[in-house]
Design goal:
about 200 residues, alpha+beta, two-stranded antiparallel sheet, 8 helices
């Protein structure tokens, strides 16, 4: 028992030190996750055919919901819009699939790993999302940011309107790889403990 305690205490102290060292970045990361609505689409499988279908679903959902989400001024507006239009989103996905697979769509909160886009990086964490599952949902997924409208506009200026200056600098900095990795490890551990 004493050997286990002698091993546990230094590991715990090191972990606590790292968390305190990176606490500001963890706080920024968690603040960002509370300001974003993501679109998350899971393909039926990893076959080329199913992956292409996933992209067709994505394209049609983005096209058909563009005006809905462009009117949203806050995250609460976006979540409310998503909830009020979840049947429409499901129907859009079904029309893209032409009856080949079942579709389920929901507004939920789910864990995401760190994700690098062309000119910004979203830290890992639990985000609000519109989750669309095609068929068994066993294939690779695709996601983007619905609010602010980054996947609709492709412009990070939309992010700068919603995030603080520190948060925006954090997601657009090219030299935060270690910080993002520490945040990701912390968020994974936290997510496993909570769920």
């Amino acid at each position: 028992m004493l050997k286990k305690l002698n091993l546990f205490v230094p590991i715990f102290v090191c972990f606590a030190f790292l968390i305190s060292l990176f606490a500001p970045f963890i706080n920024i990361s968690e603040d960002i996750s509370e300001k974003v609505l993501r679109l998350h689409i899971l393909a039926n499988s990893d076959s080329d055919y199913d992956q292409n279908l996933k992209l067709e679903v994505r394209d049609l959902i983005l096209k058909e919901t563009r005006n809905l989400f462009l009117q949203c001024k806050t995250l609460d507006d976006a979540i409310c819009t998503a909830n009020n239009n979840i049947d429409k989103i499901t129907s859009i996905a079904e029309s893209a699939l032409d009856g080949e697979y079942s579709v389920s769509a929901m507004v939920t909160k789910e864990y995401f790993d760190t994700r690098e886009y062309d000119n910004f990086t979203l830290p890992s964490g639990v985000y609000n999302s519109i989750k669309v599952i095609i068929g068994s949902g066993a294939g690779h997924n695709w996601w983007c940011v619905m609010f602010p409208q980054v996947c609709l506009s492709g412009c990070t200026d939309d992010l700068s309107d919603e995030l603080t200056k520190d948060e925006f600098e954090f997601v657009t900095s090219n030299n935060c790889v270690v910080k993002f990795k520490v945040v990701e490890v912390y968020e994974k551990i936290k997510h496993k403990i909570i769920t």
